[in-house]
Amino acid sequence: xxxxxxxxxxxxxxxxxxxxxxxxxxxxxxxxxxxxxxxxxxxxxxxxxxxxxxxxxxxxxxxxxxxxxxxxxxxxxxxxxxxxxxxxxxxxxxxxxxxxxxxxxxxxxxxxxxxxxxxxxxxxxxxxxxxxxxxxxxxxxxxxxxxxxxxxxxxxxxxxxxxxxxxxxxxxxxxxxxxxxxxxxxxxxxxxxxxxxxxxxxxxxxxxxxxxxxxxxxxxxxxxxxxxxxxxxxxxxxxxxxxxxxxxxxxxxxxxxxxxxxxxxxxxxxxxxxxxxx
Length: 278
What we know:
Blueprint: H1 2-21, E1 35-36, E2 46-47, E3 53-56, E4 59-64, E5 74-78, E6 86-94, E7 100-109, E8 119-127, E9 140-143, E10 152-154, E11 158-163, E12 166-172, H2 176-182, E13 189-196, E14 199-204, E15 207-214, E16 224-229, E17 235-246, H3 253-276
Parallel strand pairs: 11-15
Antiparallel strand pairs: 1-17, 2-5, 3-4, 4-17, 5-16, 6-13, 6-17, 7-8, 7-16, 8-9, 9-10, 11-12, 13-14, 14-15
């Protein structure tokens, strides 16, 4: 009796584990092979305005003040790689006086007429310390108009496709009340960005908040990674635990998830067979 009860409990737990791994509304478990691209000590591998970007208490910190302002939007750029098909994981926090962003599949803009030497344009994962939709962290913004001049391209909560007739929203992933509960004001929030081909997914604190298929003729498929300091009101933003994985060098996200679940499924089947006496 005790043996059967124990096996039953194990079966239930394993079944729940498999179901959690299959849950498309939550971020996949972090895979092996993520590359740490910030060493926690200095800005090796990063290029930004040294007046505004520094390492403080083991995190990347960007800050503007009334005395030290950004001359236009400015960025700190990861110089050691690209973001084609990738998975990015990090944590951020900021204050509410301004906004920031995570640039990916973007371009560095150079030229003598630029307002500063660190200008980046392209897809931006918005960073804000706010909870009221739609002006919250996580939507896709077309910084500098590089991706067709589309501004707020896909909003938090949207499952959407951009086709020949523009954007079509096909589903809702999270509502205003859900995001207000999910987001941590004045605290660290975890971000996962997964992009493969024209399919982009944003996760906030383990929850899928945006799913976008970009079929626009100016959709971006490769480019650089950078963090933004916005011009205007004094602000600060911090990033930590920055790690990335090149999906082109590995199996697809869905295949990796399937492989990770197979041992659990086999074990669950074995326990069920024991219970049934097969």
